[in-house]
C-alpha cells in the first residue's frame, strides 16, 4: 500500500489543466481556419458589408489569441500555479469567443443574403413607383412650370437676360443636357450660335438658314424632333460610345426688334425667326413627352412677347437701372458715413472717459507723492511718472483733436490773450526737459510784436509746444532758438502756399514764428511726409525718442484753421532743422483787454495754498478716481466726504458742504439729475453748495448739458495738485469755473 502511494501523481490538478489547454488549443485552431473561410464566403456573396461590429468581434478574437500566446511564453520554463491558472483562463475565453463568432456567422450570413435579395426587390419596386409618380407629378406641374417660366422670362426687359434666362430655366425644368439659341445674321442667310446652356461650343458658329431641317422647323409653330447629327444639333462632343439623346427644335418669332443687336448685329425690323434647340441627356432611355413639347412651345411664344416688349422699353429701363444704381451707391455711401461717424463718436467717448479716468488717478497720486519728503532718486522717479503721464494725456488730447479736425467739428475758441506770456509759458514748460539734455533755449520776441492778440491761446500754445518739443526731443546737444515777429506784407508773398493766401487788414496781423535746432535734421525728400499722421522720418539714431506721429499733423490742421501756413526746412541729416509757421491773429480793441479764457493756472500770489475746514462732497462711481480726488482735496486741507451713487449723494449733501464734485455719467441717477435735485433742495443760492462736474468727457455736449442743469463749473480729468489748488481758488473767488 505504501508503494502504491509513492507512484501517485504529485499534482493531479496540473494534469487536468493541461488537458483543458489541449482542448482549448484544438478549438482555437478550428476557429482559425473556419472564421476566415466564412468571412471570405460572405464578402464574395454580398456586395455590401454593413455589419462592422462583426469585424470588431473578430478583432477581439484575434486579440485574445495573441494574449493567449503571449501568456504561453511563461509556460516553457518552471512556472507557478498562478501563471497556469491565468493561462487556462485566457485560453478558455479565447475558445469561447472564437466559437461564438463562428456560430454567429453561420446564422447571420444566410439572413444577410436573404435581406439583400428582398432589399433589391423593394428598390426595384420603389424605383418603378417613383417613375410612375414622377410622370404623374410632371404632368400635374406642367402648368405650374409654364407659369413659372413665363414669370422668370417676363420679370426683366433686358433682351439678353430674357434669352439667357430662357435657356437656364428650360434646362433646369426639363433636365436638359444642352440647350442653345441660334439667331439670324445680318444678311439673313445664316443662323449664328448666340447662346448655349453650358458654353461647350464657341459663340459665333454659323450654319446656312436654307438647311432642310431649319425650313422644317420654321414652317410650323410646333416643336419638331430633329436628328442629333444635323448641324444645329451638334452642340456637345460625344465621348466614348454614348448615344446622343433625343433633340427637338422650335422657332422663336422675333417681332419688331428695332435696335436689337447681339454680338454687334444690325437692326432687324422685319419678321424673322430664331431657332431654339433642346437636347436630352446622352445614353439615356428618356424620350420627349407630349406635355414637355407643349411646354417648349408655350415658352417660345412667351419669349417672343417678352422680346417685343424689351425692344420698346430698353432705353427707359437702361435709364432707370442707372438711376437705381446711383441711388444704391449713394445710400451705401450714406450708411457707411453714418457708421463711420458712430464709430468715431464711440471711440471719442471711450477715449474721453475710460482713458482719462485712470490718467486722473495716476497724475493726481503722483503729484501728491511729489509733495512728500522723497530722496533725490525717488523724486526723479515720481517726476518721470508725471512727465510720462502728461505726455500720455497730451496724446489723448491729440487723438481727440485730430478726430474733431477731420470731421470739422473742432472750432477755434477766440479771445483776447497775452501773446508774450504765452511764449514765456511755453519756455517755462520746456526748459526743465531741455536742461536735462543740457540744451540752451533762447526766446526772441520782436519789438513790433503786439503784447495782446485775439485768437485761440490754447491751440497756439499747443502748436508752439509741439514744435519746440520736437526740437528738444531730436536734439542731443547744441541750442534751440525761438523767434517771433510780425510778418510784413512784402515777405508774405514769398510764403504763398497752395492753401495759404494772406490778405492784409487793419484788424489783424500775421505772426511769423521760427524754431531752429541743432538736432538730427531731416532728409529733404522726407520733409513732405512729416505732416502725415504717424509718420516718423527721423534718422535711426533718434527713433528711441518716441512720439506718436500726431504732433505735426495736428499742428498743420490748427495752423490751417488760423488761416496760416507751416513748413520745415533742413539741409539734411545731422544738420539741424528749422520749423516755421505763420498764423493770423486779431488786434484787440484795447491793449489792456483781459478777456482771457480760463486756464487752470494763476499767479502764485493769487492762489490760496490751504483750504482748511472746507467741506467738499465727491461723487464718483470709479473707486480709483474717487480715491485720487479725495487725496488731492485732503492734501489741500479740505474735509472730504465721498459717495458712490446719485441717491447717496442726495442723502448726504447738506448746508455744510461748500463744493460738490461729481461725475456726470453715473448708474441710476446721473449727475445731471443730481444737480437739478440739489437746486430743488436748496432754494436759496447762497446756501447751496457749488456744483462742479469733474468728468473725463471733453465734448461740447457735456459742457452744454452742465450749463442747462445749473452747474457752476466743468473740470476735465486728469487733475493734479496744482490744478486742484487753482480750481478751488477760482471757484471760491468767482463761484463759477468752466474749463476750456
UniProtKB/TrEMBL annotation:
The gene is ETR1. It is found in: Endoplasmic reticulum membrane. It comes from Paeonia lactiflora. May act early in the ethylene signal transduction pathway, possibly as an ethylene receptor, or as a regulator of the pathway. The keyword ATP-binding applies. One of its GO terms (molecular function) is metal ion binding. Residues 615-732 form the Response regulatory domain. Binds 1 copper ion per dimer. Cu cation binds at residues 65, 69. It comes from the Eukaryota. Belongs to the ethylene receptor family. It is a multi-pass membrane protein. There is a cross-link at residue 717 (Glycyl lysine isopeptide (Lys-Gly) (interchain with G-Cter in ubiquitin)). The modification 4-aspartylphosphate is found at residue 663. Keywords: ATP-binding, Copper, Disulfide bond, Endoplasmic reticulum, Ethylene signaling pathway, Kinase, Membrane, Metal-binding, Nucleotide-binding, Phosphoprotein, Receptor, Transferase, Transmembrane, Transmembrane helix, Two-component regulatory system. CDD domains: HisKA, REC_ETR-like. Residues 350-589 form the Histidine kinase domain. It catalyses: ATP + protein L-histidine = ADP + protein N-phospho-L-histidine. The keyword ATP-binding applies. GO terms for biological process: negative regulation of ethylene-activated signaling pathway. Its main location: endoplasmic reticulum. Pfam families: ETR1_N, GAF, HATPase_c, HisKA, Response_reg. Its cofactor is Cu cation. ADP binds at residues 470-473, 517, 548, 552. One of its GO terms (cellular component) is endoplasmic reticulum membrane. This is Ethylene receptor. The chain crosses the membrane at residues 20-41, 53-72, 92-113.
